[in-house]
Design a protein that fits this description.
There is one protein chain. It contains seven helices and five strands; from the N terminus they run E-H-H-E-E-E-H-E-H-H-H-H. It is of the alpha+beta class. Strands 1, 2, 3, 4 and 5 form a five-stranded antiparallel β-sheet that branches.
Length: 182
């Protein structure tokens, strides 16, 4: 477990309507589509309880194929190694928007309303992204005050050869259950 981490409660972000529409393959200029999406997206957004945790680990070695972190974790991914090329530290962040949005998706699924379930799922996914972007911007300001630049890009488990199962490390690094009830 990281000895130092930051717990951010009530992460501020705006309803990411354009991103939701993009995820659904729609356009903001289509009033019929937006008329269907906006009420569901607003309902999901109203149930968001965004909070997150972030910390960092030093990079001990990066051979271009894998990255060794200061806690002994090895990230075996050429893509992650390339992403972290030249870095001396690895920023680790996790965000949740709570269970409310998932409950809305379930309600739509249970009532056989597939269209609204899809919209609610897209809205919840984009709300998580928006909350993470906001938390990362907060972290960036903290780092900037210390004279360090935090890259605005992110890399997640499940992409670029970084196996999804590796998410388990986040439970080792950060007190997710205790602070975020994940």
């Amino acid at each position: 477990m990281l000895s130092t981490f930051v717990h951010v409660k009530d992460i501020p972000f705006d309803l990411p309507l354009i991103a939701i529409m993009r995820r659904l393959g729609g356009k903001m200029s289509d009033s019929v589509q937006t008329g269907m999406v906006i009420p569901v997206a607003e309902r999901v957004f109203a149930e968001c309880r965004p909070s997150g945790l972030w910390g960092e680990l030093s990079i001990v070695d990066n051979d271009g194929n894998m990255v060794d972190l200061s806690d002994g974790t090895r990230i075996d991914s050429k893509s992650v190694a390339g992403f972290l090329s030249g870095a001396t530290r690895c920023w680790l962040g996790v965000v949740t928007i709570g269970t409310g949005p998932l409950n809305i998706v379930r309600q739509y699924v249970e009532s056989d309303d597939g269209a609204n379930a899809l919209i609610a799922d897209a809205a919840a996914s984009e709300c998580v992204e928006a909350a993470m972007e906001s938390m990362q911007a907060m972290a960036s300001l903290d780092y900037q005050a210390a004279g360090v630049v935090l890259d605005h890009r992110r890399f997640s488990c499940g992409f670029g050869g970084w196996r999804l199962e590796e998410q388990r490390h986040y439970f080792e690094w950060l007190p997710l259950q205790e602070k975020l009830q994940i």
